[in-house]
Structure formats: C-alpha cells, structure tokens
Amino acid sequence: MTSFKELKIIEPILHALEAEGYKTPTPIQSQAIPLVLHKKDILGCAQTGTGKTAAFAIPILQLLTENKHNQSGKRILHCLILTPTRELAIQIGESFATYGKNLDLKHRVIYGGVKQLKQVEALRAGVDILIATPGRLLDLMHQNHLNLNSIQFFVLDEADRMLDMGFVHDVKKIIAKLPPKKQSLFFSATMPPDILRLAGSILVNPSKVEVTPVSSTAEKINQVVYFVDKENKNKLLIHVLKDPEIERVLVFTRTKHGADKVTKELIKSNIPSLAIHGNKSQNARQDALKKFKSKTIRVLVATDIAARGIDIDELTHVINYELPNVPESYVHRIGRTGRAGASGITFGFCDAEEKEYLKDIEKLIGKKVPIVEDHPFPLKNHTVTKAPPKPQRPPRAHRQGSSEKPHQTSRGHREESTEKTHSSLRPHREASPKKSHRPAGKKNSFRR
Fold this sequence. Notes:
Number of strands: 16
CATH class of the largest domain: Alpha Beta
Largest sheet: 7 strands, parallel
Oligomer: single chain
Strand order of the largest sheet: 3-4-2-5-6-1-7
Radius of gyration: 21 Å
Number of helices: 14
C-alpha cells in the first residue's frame, strides 16, 4: 500500500501528517498528488468524503515551497482556491494550516457575510494562498484590493455546487482575470455537460482522476427509511434518540424555520441541540460546529448549508428528518458520515408527500433503501397526496439554496449563502429548491 513518503512528499509536510496520525493516502490522493507534483492540470471526480482537499493542498504546498521566489520579502499571491460556501472555505483553510504548519507559507480565507476590513488588511500584508468564495472575491477585486496576475495555481473545488448555486457566471468572471499560464485543478462530485464545458474552458490537456461512481453512496453507510406521518416526525426523532449508541447525530431539514422548530422540540425533551442555517451569523455557525465537534451538544440540526460543508471526525449517524427533493442532495447529506472508509448509519423519515422523493433517491443510488416497519409511529395516511412541486432553476440572482436569499455586498455582488442537501439507518428527508441534474459520488486517511 502506498504511503505518503512513497509519494515523495517533503519532510516538513510528512512531519505535519505524522503529527496528525495520517499515514495512508486515500485513492484520490494516491492518484492526484503525483500528477499535481508533475505540473499536470487535473479533472477530478470523486464522491464526497474521499479526501479531495488533501489531494490538492499537499502538492500545492510542496510546489510553492520548492519554487518559492520571495526575494523581495513581500508575499505574493500565487495560489487561488475557489469554493462555493463559507463553511467549505473555512475547512479548506484549516487543512492548509494543518498540512503546512511547518512551512513558511501564509494562507487566508475570505468570504462574505462578515465585514471585509480584516480581510483587506490581511491581503495588504501579503498572502501566498487565498481560499475564497466567489462573491466576496469579486467584490474585493472590483475595489482594487487584489488582483490575480501572479496566480500560478488555480483550484476550483465543488464545481457542481458552484453551478447549482448559480455562481457559474461569477466563476467565469474570475477565470477571465487569471493569467493564461498556470496550473489548474478542477474538482467536482459530478460531471454533467455544463460542468464538462466549464472544465474545458479552464484546463489544458488534463489528467482525469475518478475514484468512485458519482451517484454512489459510501459502501459502509447503512441506510434505512421510516414511513411516518408528518405530524409524528418529532415524536419519532425523540424515540430514535433514546438509543444511547447515537452519541452525536446530524439532522437535516429542508428549511431554516424547520431547523429551528426541530431544535426547540429537542431542547424541550432535554436533548442538547443547536441549529445551523443561513439566518445564523458566521460566528453562531462556527460556535455550533465547535460545540458539536467537541460533543458539548448531541444534535446539530442543519439545512443543506451543511451538506458539503461539515467535516466531523467519526460522525456515525445522520438523520434526514425531511427527504430532499433533489436526490443528489441525499448523497451529499449522508456523506457526512462514513467518511474516509469509516462506517456510518443514516435514517430517513418519509411522509406520504415524500414518497416520490424516495423513488428518485433510490433510482439515483441504484438500490432500494430498507424500510423499518417496527416503530411506534407508522404511517397511517397511506394515501399519497400530491408532493410539493420540484423546484425549477430560479433566476440567477436567487439561485443560492433552498430558502436562502443571496447576500448583497457593499458593491452589489451576490455572496454565498450556504444552503443545500443528505441520510442512512433510520430517519432521513430533505428538499431544497430546484432540481439538479447531477449525482454525487482516523485518522490514517483524509476526509477533507
């Protein structure tokens, strides 16, 4: 089995990996790292949780260290990573901090929803690596706080999510400002025609890295579904949480209001819980994630803002309190567990209106989700009422997430709200607006 040492990773990075207990690269890392080190453009397609971030972060850190020309003493921006949401940007920043802690390289994360002053000051001080969301990046570019003339490495991460959230035009504006000579790395969970066209406009003779079927759910995720009347979902959730083996669980709802409502019911039942969604401030979101990771709270209730934006070590359970009306979102949601080869359990709660959503999910993942028949709140209303209409692609200005409206920056640019869609061994459900046409899919390997 390949080790990071066999991939010819430099000692400072190896020491950082060893300090974290990481020894064995994941398949996408084994394939992508040598290609990036050989200066190849990459078209990467991999299921969530396979270690994409390390697949580009490690070799970029190494190449920047080996090719450092910083004789002037001022740091020059050489690497741009573009990602659709604040949560993902923060996570990527944490990865660069972890793998590059023994290197003389400086990174910065910029995103909207917060005041820009500190970000502007950091850019003026100089950075080597910038991780950014599209709206805030364009805003700062238009204010002449930075330019992209010196970029040597460009990474477009979660490209399908960019398209899904309506950022493709912003991405194209940013790409137009990049120098023609650069190394580009393009990562996406799915590869529909629009994504391939976008990749074709960025990459030059790319090497393709694909490690799992894009619509697959992790093999080690045990998925089940409960049929239950809508009004009994809270009772079923509390019943399921009586299981002491569920130490921590991520619960998905379709709307912000729904997340708050579920959280209140759980707190009434003395189950420590917090909600995370687009109406929460960035500080509140980060505080909720911190408490969930540290096990201060048992339940984190989230809208699809968290579907691809949460990376939690050893998260064993995900509950889809509401099934998503976009089937790919189910894959992303349940992908919060079973990461990096670990096992996971997901439960889906399906009411009468959501049966059509379940059919779409099963069609996408290519298998039937087992039904739990024996529970206290079986579906009484077997009449399938008309399901809520599957959302049409909204106008570009409102194409952010299921119930989020785009944030306008001071210069009028849309900023990333982070709402979107996922589930496995009991409850699950969720639906965000608009139907996407794409599928998805402890150390010792990387989840980021």
